[in-house]
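Below is how a single chain appears once it has passed through the pipeline. First comes the sequence as given, then the structure the pipeline wrote out for it. We keep one example in the README because the format questions we get most often are answered faster by looking than by reading.
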Amino acid sequence: MKTAIITDSNSGITQDEAKKLGISVVPMPVLIDEELYFEDLTLSQEQFYEKLKGDANVSTSQPNPIDVGEIWAEALKTNDAVIYIPMSSGLSETCHTLSHYAKTEQQFNGKVFVVDNQRISITQRQSVEDAIKLADEGKTAQEIYDYLMNTKMQSSIYIMVDTLKYLKKGGRLTPAVAAIGTLLKIKPVLQIQGEKLDQFAKVRKLADAKSTMISAIKKDLTTRFKDLTAAGKMTLAIAHTENLEEAEKFKAEIMEEFPNIEFTYVNPLSLSVSCHIGPGALAVACAIKY
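Resulting structure:
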């Protein structure tokens, strides 16, 4: 059985990288002042941040199911099945919409498997890499789907937000709380444990934020994921929003702190997340690998 692997641009996998990996990436739509763009096709990271910092009205939306269906249909011309790995249903309705579409459209029912494994960005990318390996081993689409679903909670992300401006703009903070936080130079550390983006800690310095995130990841690796860590099954990765220099420095700190755990990627966060947290963010994640 030949299975195609398809994901969306929330995974951080670019169109060029997708070609090298032998997969397809659905570009996520971004609305800027009511004009529609597509991530990594008609909108680069640089263009996005220029608009975002210029106070343009920026928002993200779901991809059109018909457009995604065309990509699935093209893949099914040369494959028996499709594994589709979108962003977490805890962060967007996209997953639910496309899962329903795959089950109700006759040409896709039983052939397209939409994986709701609660991943985003660098942990979503790890799922894609795992799916590729499983497909290369000749596993069926059902077997790949089952593995990704059975391991969906075996990942963790911590994100430091550099400014409260965009959380306020997106309605995730009241103006009063955002004003106080900005005045006190608070840098919230957020977490994603499978579902939604939640508050984890509040700090005032970048060094404190990094220390907080390292401690949190260390706790996860030595408690929740203790057995997987001992078996060499966990990976570490870093994501950022227009903050590559600090991300590279953070990578060095992470690798020094966890010398025996595989480090995989330093990736920009997807625009769907960046839209809500703004530039200057840093994130660290751990995730199981196949």
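The longest strand covers residues 197-203.

See the next section for the split statistics.
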